[in-house]
Specification:
By secondary structure, this protein is mainly beta. The chain has one domain: Jelly Rolls, CATH 2.60.120.10. The protein is 4% helix and 49% strand. It is built from 1 helix and 24 strands. The strands form 4 sheets. Strands 2, 14, 15, 16, 17, 18, 19, 20, 21 and 22 form a 10-stranded antiparallel beta sheet that branches. The radius of gyration is 19 Å and the shape is globular. Belongs to the pirin family. This is Pirin family protein.
Length: 323
């Protein structure tokens, strides 16, 4: 998934100065961002004051959108370095193409995991024949220094482990580990991503790691997370220090995505679709994309690639997790 803003702001993140070492409730309001030709997303991370949750550094939520008779998601070829992208759907389908030759349709509750590593380009689109609704989340994971120049790759996993606990509670492990269940997706840092479904009236207590920081994005319904009401399309940052997380569906069924991980110690620079360590590295990636070097070619997408926006006039420097 791309950041298609014409003038993206540089984001400095990483380091542990801004990590809440004790449990907190910090509601993160979304901001609406156009994506491609016809999709508008709610961007929750990075936000003002909160840049990362573990290695998770980017969270977009979209839908449910009625795309009957519409093109749906249309994101032309664009580049990435230094990160992994996670495609996660509750409704609809997304056709993924990339410069290492992958061609795969990702469907609800299937993991589409792309490791950009040193450089990759890809496109995402709703298939020509698609269902009425499109609803999902697009997530980025920052790669640690020892793996950020890895060979690019794409993984698709349709069968993911499921954790159950009591009546009306079910958690699909997207990435990392949760309550002894491990996703088949390749992870490079201690991390967890889980899709949690709660039936009406469900009241659950989910085991979590006290050394991880967590956030919860409500996908559907109203959910109480540790007593905090979180409406659909909103996210609550929870900090560290918990051994269990109380969850309750309010007024009907609810669904959320839980994101967590060991606080990411390295300081990063994130601009447009690139995660690096220095402004010079980001500028070189932009030049390479503009010159047609390094990122390869996406075959089969009907349209030109996304041009790189201009770099900001101020130097890009890594300074930490929060402003």
């Amino acid at each position: 998934m791309s950041d298609l803003q014409l003038r993206p702001e540089p984001v400095v993140c990483g380091g542990r100065d801004g990590v809440a070492g004790a449990p907190v409730h910090e509601l993160l309001a979304p901001r609406r961002v156009p994506l491609g030709e016809s999709t508008v997303v709610r961007r929750l991370l990075p936000s003002l004051g909160r840049r990362m949750v573990g290695a998770w550094c980017f969270v977009d939520h979209y839908g449910p959108d009625d795309i009957a008779g519409e093109p749906g998601m249309q994101v032309p070829p664009h580049p990435h370095i230094g990160l992994q992208t996670v495609s996660w759907l509750h409704a609809g389908e997304v056709l993924h193409r990339d410069s290492v030759g992958s061609l795969r349709t990702v469907r609800p509750r299937e993991l589409g995991l792309m490791t950009a590593g040193r450089a990759i380009s890809h496109s995402e689109e709703s298939p020509r024949e698609h269902g009425r609704l499109l609803h999902g989340a697009q997530l980025w994971v920052a790669l640690p220094d020892g793996h950020r120049h890895a060979e690019p790759a794409f993984e698709h996993h349709a069968g993911l482990p499921v954790v159950t606990g009591g009546t009306g509670f079910e958690a699909t492990v997207i990435l990392g580990e949760l309550d002894g269940a491990a996703s088949p997706g390749t992870a490079y840092t201690p991390i967890v991503g889980a899709d949690i479904a709660l039936r009406a009236g469900a009241d659950a207590r989910l085991p979590v790691e006290p050394d991880f920081e967590y956030a919860a994005l409500t996908m559907a319904g109203t959910v109480e997370v540790d007593g905090e009401r979180v409406e659909p399309g909103s996210m609550v940052y929870l900090g560290c220090g918990r051994r269990e997380l109380p969850l309750r569906a309010v007024d009907g069924d609810g669904g959320l995505v839980l994101l967590g991980g060991e606080p990411f110690a390295e300081k990063l620079v994130m601009w447009w679709n690139f995660v690096g360590r220095t402004g010079e590295e980001i500028a070189q990636a932009r030049r390479d994309w503009t010159d047609g070097d390094r990122f390869g070619e996406v075959h089969g997408y009907d349209g030109p690639p996304v041009p790189a926006p201009p770099l900001p006039e101020t130097p890009l420097k890594a300074r930490g997790r929060v402003r």
